[in-house]
From TrEMBL, chains A, B:
GO CC, any one term: cytoplasm
Signal peptide: none
Name of the protein described by the UniProt record: ATP phosphoribosyltransferase regulatory subunit
Residues the entry annotates as binding L-histidine: D83, M84, T85, R113, Q127, E131
Organism, as annotated: Sphingobium terrigena
């Protein structure tokens, strides 16, 4: 029987070919291997879950963004996962509810949504990450940020920038020292997102009090000084946040560029006190993000957690990690024992199936002549 | 913000937890690493494609078995992949149409269908495989079968049984030396599936001529003798098949159990002259299968291909590959340099976040005391 020829692929869904597919798999492996050495153990949640539990757990996810199907068994709507972090939270709250804390889990796999976002047309992407469940302390944040950096560096990603944010800072200020009504709160957020000082001031004196946060943005140490001056004006209302950021920054190596954007909220819909975005030199857009959040346990209590997720597709698209293996052509009748030895030494062998094959066309640099390697 | 607690998972979809998730990932890695050393290069097709192209390419797949969604961009129906082999065929026929042949590709990833089959309730499973495109010769079959065996053995799977089949044998006989009408052909297939000699004879003399095939089943060498006797009766009509099977069997090591079931067709809906199933000692049901097939190229020509796919979930479910890493507890203030050295030596470290953590509860066998390891 014959397979019918293919049509085009749907927009936003694509094939990864050699060598990018291997580069993608290698990067994920190295990240997972590194986090494993820090005690993070692999979990594999399913590709699909009931839609209602997925959308309830992902406040930022609208049902119409999900790839959905009706489950003939339960007659309920299934949805493909648009994210794995929430699935890992579910695992921690259910099957691993009684596992000792802190619980360290890692994961990697494809996530998919029905509509692409404005910045990237891809609807399927690889997510790789690690979550620490049972704590969102400064010590936990130090561990997560440093494990993320170590994992990326082990995978060969250099020129990293980490951008810190304080996702619930505005809520915290609005509910305390700098009160805002609900409608003002959203307007202030919008202008802080736009870094539009004029528009913020135009919202009135309550909103204008948030102006120093626009300035507390940029290279970490200078931005922190401005954030500390703002904190002093507020009588130390965000002392704990300042101390937390300082502690997280302290062990980060000189080879990492640190920045601060305390009001950044894009991608931090469920994070609370701390968030961070990861960028790599030469690549547009973030390659990962992380932060602290809460998981609702079956007993109704919140459990603190912190983690990071990487989305390495933009790196791979840009050619990161393309490594050509050494390919060795084996003519018909080549010495099988010697070929096995050479594979063990790192060669990838390509065996002839007929007598007149051309190993050079098959991208082999050498061929096996008896026990000897000969260059093409 | 808080993540809402999870409901149950849909039937047939489940979480893999430690250590099974790691065992599954490790098995897939080792298979992919082994096939890579034989020149198979990784591809990553997308999770979803247009439904019509998927169902056209998978004759055995009914549309109602697929997880489907309407694509808002194209207004066409998308379907989640129930299989990756056909996707690899599509890649070979399109984006890699002009790549030199033979083209060797590998892949690994989840596949999903809406309804489980009778034997296993799982609707999502891991598929790992390799395809050789451009040849379905005996030499190509020898390579594929032996690469599959080597990959499984490298992953630690022992006690392998390979069951050979000839998927198009009945069609070939019915169109030639042992003619059958279309309705007879299906009845003969059914009785051969059931190995019901009495029912086969009852279908009449044309059908009864297929009786020797029921006997040509079982341990390879004895079954081949009976198949050869049958071939002699037919005047050598299946000489090429006999020679092919003999050649494929020849290099297979004594540690593999070989069997023959020349009329087995379950799971071989698109294979032609050669197919094989893989079983592992102690596990019910096949863990993989492979065989020869044809890909329809864009120019309307068939291109021969051969490959194998593994479905390792049953092995993992049965506890295969569970390896507990050595876990080392790092008390607060532990020597970071020494900890990094120990990670490089293979330890997985688990760092305390607070002073009173109990490393033994976190399944650590040892803790770091200065530069020394101490057992709990």
């Amino acid at each position: 029987m014959t397979m019918i020829p293919p049509g085009l692929l749907p927009e936003g869904l694509s094939d990864r070919l050699p060598p990018q597919a291997e580069a993608s798999a290698r990067l994920a492996r190295r990240v997972l291997d590194t986090v494993a050495t820090h005690g993070y153990e692999r979990v594999m949640p399913p590709l699909a879950e009931f839609e209602d539990t997925l959308t309830q757990r992902l406040k930022s996810m609208r049902a119409q963004d999900l790839v959905r199907a009706v489950d003939p068994v339960s007659q309920r709507s299934l949805a493909l996962r648009p994210d794995m972090t929430a699935q890992v939270g579910r695992i921690a709250a259910t099957r691993l509810a009684t596992a000792p804390r802190p619980l360290r889990l890692s994961y990697a796999g494809p996530v998919i949504r029905l509509k692409a976002n404005q910045l990237r047309p891809e609807r399927e992407k690889l997510q790789v990450g690690a979550e620490l469940i049972g704590s969102d302390s400064v010590a936990a944040a130090v561990e997560i940020v440093n494990v993320a950096i170590e994992a990326l560096q082990a995978a060969g990603v250099s020129g990293l920038t980490i951008d810190f944010t304080l996702p619930d800072l505005i809520d915290m200020l609005a509910a305390g020292p700098l009160p805002l009504a609900a409608d003002e709160l959203e307007a202030v957020r919008t202008e802080l997102d736009a870094k539009d000082a004029g528009a913020l001031v135009a919202l009135g004196p309550q909103a204008a009090a948030y102006l120093p946060l626009i300035e507390a943005t940029g290279p970490f140490h200078a931005a922190m000084e401005r954030l500390e001056a703002f904190n002093a004006q507020l009588g130390g209302a965000i002392n704990s946040r300042i101390a937390g950021l300082r502690a997280i920054a302290r062990p980060i190596g000189w080879d990492i560029t640190l920045t601060l954007d305390p009001t950044e909220r894009h991608g931090f819909e469920y994070q609370n006190w701390f968030g961070f975005s990861i960028f790599a030199e030469g690549f547009i857009g973030e390659i990962g993000r992380g932060g602290s959040y809460a998981i609702l346990r079956a007993d109704g209590q919140d459990e603190p957690a912190i983690g990071f997720s990487l989305y390495p597709d933009p790196l791979i698209d840009a050619g990161f990690g393309d490594e050509a293996p050494k390919r060795l052509f084996l003519p018909l009748g080549a010495d099988a024992i010697r070929a096995a030895e050479l594979r063990a030494e790192g060669w990838h062998t390509v065996a002839a199936l007929v007598g007149d094959e051309d190993g050079a066309t098959l991208r082999c640099s050498h061929w096996l002549d008896g026990a000897e390697l000969r260059a093409f």
